[in-house]
Design a protein that fits this description.
By secondary structure, the chain is α/β, with parallel strands linked by helices. It has three domains: 83 residues, SRP54, nucleotide-binding domain (Four Helix Bundle (Hemerythrin (Met), subunit A)); 183 residues, Rossmann fold (3-Layer(aba) Sandwich), CATH 3.40.50.300; 151 residues, 434 Repressor (Amino-terminal Domain) (Orthogonal Bundle). The chain is built from 22 helices and eight strands. Helix 10 links the parallel strand 6 and strand 7. Helix 7 packs parallel to helix 8. The chain starts with a helix and ends with a helix. The chain binds guanosine-5'-triphosphate and magnesium ion. The site of guanosine-5'-triphosphate has 20 residues, from helix 5.
């Protein structure tokens, strides 16, 4: 049984229970412990996780969800926290990536997977074979690069890996490659020879990211490898391969929590498409049976959204529709929301949720953080004023005050402008197209903070745009 199935069994036990009491929590914790231990999670960590679940299980249950649901959420959140250390995302173009790791950990396969991944995202990718140790390495990588349709560089005659890298980088740069991935040779242990080789490659290549490639098969031994590589050659993060089918995946993932190594990618199969950006939340909800967990999380989100709407009671949708949308409201929206914020809910109940572009609905978390930092440098006057109020000199001041770029501030302003324009458009022409079931006048007097979610849903059914 996989880790996911075992954890799922534990969750099912809670769902099927009649009462959530101390006895049930104890039993379920035991089951989780068994699941974690058999997937090679460090015993001390298993105890820590159990203790945390036990403590939180009896904390105050948030309004709107049952104690049972609360317990499932506690499991889930605690596991997400311990699985995989901190979640980090790479920038759009990581420019130079060096892969290192022991024999057979999956470096060469990962090099091709990453190449394909970034090619799909529009980069011109080149891969250098710096494995001069294993004779077959050259052909293996060359073939994989052909499959991924990316530029390959190797030199079968040259035995000095850093010389190959030097020549490779200049060859690829001449070919206008904008992301270079270097695949290095493995050894059975991080010995002096391997340390020196990686350090030499590092010096010549100057990678923006050096990733340690680890196989999930080794379970919690991942911890020792990560520590050793980090101490001697320094790594920015890890890629865990072979998470498909590995019985020890839990051990490998939690080991990264212990060493505080961010996991950037995971390998989930032998094919070059089988690579994912790692996100503990997403990963766990999938292995545990996505449907159930996500609908629970959705419910919890809805509950919080109602609480958030409560905070918005001084916001009048009529004003928003008239185009009175300013930075203050935008800031509120950002702080309320991780995924779908109240504004899109407000729009949803106006039946116009689909009027938001995907971009507006899914402002990435990174951007939300960035915009929040920028907004902290706004004065009260600027927050409450129109977008035109933010003149060039103000933008400059805000940029330097927030430590962000001029363009970042401009990007945010243009986002607010776009939203404002859209709201205004809705209150003009589009509202006239509302279905006959509802009087637009009534709509204008509506207060979303006083409605519950089912009322909103009902309303949104009645309201249909052409
Ligand atoms: N199932 C599965 N197999 C993988 C994954 N990644 C790599 N492999 C397999 O693991 C084996 C070793 O992969 P390589 O990419 O050659 O490993 P390496 O680290 O380059 O090996 P050396 O260069 O010899 O040190 C190959 O058979 C790959 O197909 C993965 O995510 N899932
Ligand atoms: Mg290799």
């Amino acid at each position: 049984m996989s880790l996911g199935e075992k954890l799922r069994d534990a969750v099912d036990k809670v769902k099927q229970s009649v009462h959530v009491d101390k006895q049930l929590v104890k039993e379920v914790i035991k089951e989780i412990q068994r699941a974690l231990i058999t997937s090679d999670v460090n015993i001390k960590l298993v105890l820590e996780i159990s203790k945390e679940i036990e403590q939180k299980a009896f904390e105050n249950v948030p309004t709107g969800i049952t104690r049972k649901e609360h317990l499932v959420k506690v499991f889930y959140d605690t596991l997400v926290k311990y699985i995989g250390g901190e979640t980090k995302e790479l920038e759009e173009n990581p420019e130079k990536i060096l892969l290192c790791g022991l024999f057979g950990s999956g470096k060469t396969t990962t090099a091709a997977k990453l190449a394909k991944f970034y090619k799909k995202r529009g980069l011109k990718v080149g891969v250098v074979c710096a494995d001069t140790y294993r004779p077959a390495a050259y052909d293996q990588l060359k073939q994989l690069c052909e499959k991924a349709d990316v530029v390959f560089y190797g030199d079968i005659e040259e035995k000095n890996a850093s010389k190959v890298v030097e020549a490779g980088v200049s060859y690829l740069q001449k070919n206008n490659v904008n992301l270079i991935i270097v695949d290095s040779a493995g050894r059975s242990a991080l010995d002096e020879e391997l340390t020196k080789e990686i350090k030499d490659i590092y010096k010549i290549f100057q990678p923006k990211y050096s990733f340690l490639v680890l196989s999930a098969d080794v379970g919690q031994a991942v911890k020792d490898q990560a520590q050793a590589f980090n101490e001697s050659v320094g790594v920015d993060g890890v890629v865990i391969t072979k998470l498909d089918g590995s019985a020890k995946g839990g051990g490998a993932l939690t080991a990264c929590y212990l060493t505080k190594s961010p996991i950037y990618f995971i390998g989930t199969g032998e094919k070059i498409e089988d690579l994912e950006i790692f996100n503990a939340d997403r990963y766990l909800s999938r292995i545990m049976g996505y449907g159930d967990i996500s609908s629970l999380l959705e419910k919890i989100n809805e509950v919080t959204t109602q609480e958030q709407l409560e905070q918005m009671k001084d916001v009048n949708p009529k004003d928003i529709l008239k185009g009175k949308f300013n930075f203050k409201l935008f800031k509120q929206q950002l702080s309320f929301t991780k995924k779908l914020g109240p504004f899109s809910k407000v729009l949803g109940f106006l039946g116009a949720g689909n009027k938001l572009s995907e971009e507006q609905k899914n402002l990435g978390q990174e951007k939300i953080n960035k915009f929040n930092i920028i907004l902290d440098s706004f004065t009260k006057e600027e927050l409450e004023n129109d977008t035109d109020f933010i003149t060039k000199s103000r933008i400059k001041r805000i940029a330097s005050g927030s430590g962000k770029k001029y363009e970042d501030v401009k990007e945010m302003i243009s986002q607010v402008k776009k939203m404002k324009k859209m709201f205004r458009k809705m209150s003009g022409g589009d509202l006239k197209n509302l279905s006959k079931n509802i009087n637009p006048k009534d709509l204008e007097n509506m207060d979303p903070s006083k409605m519950d979610l089912s009322q909103m849903k009902d309303l949104s059914k009645k309201l249909k745009y052409k």
